[in-house]
Amino acid sequence: MEQLDQENLGTAKAYQMRLGLQDIYRLESVQEARQAGETVRATRPAHEAYVGADEALRRMQEQQTEKSGLAQQRSAILKTKVEGESQGKSARKQLEEDAAQARIRVFTSGAPSGAAPTTSLERICGSSDTYPT
Predict the structure, then answer these.
(1) With left for phi above 0 and alpha for psi between -120 and 50, is residue 114 left, alpha or beta?
(2) Which of 69, 59, 64 has the alpha carbon at shortest distance from 6?
(3) How far apart are CA 46 and CA 14, in angstroms?
(4) In this prediction, what percent of the chain has a pLDDT beyond 90?
């Protein structure tokens, strides 16, 4: 789209210069033609400066667009990173909780239904009354 706009701008400028030249050729007097030629020569540096500034502005706008796109990519990457860290932290916490639950089940397993849970030490040594305190 930007390239099309630039091509249209160039075409419009060329058309304006053509119209200016046509006006010069239509002038009836040589004096008027000379004055018009002087006007063209006098304004040429300003016109060239304008074209150069316009081109510089276009390049700067392209860079700004690229910078904005990179900033959006960076933001998306940071968001993904934070989400990943959060999910990792949640997964570690869940794993620790599951491991703790598994340890509790191992230590309390083997007790008859309705009996008080026993620890692994009580299972090895017998009841808590059989080992010294």
Answers:
(1) left
(2) 59
(3) 16
(4) 35
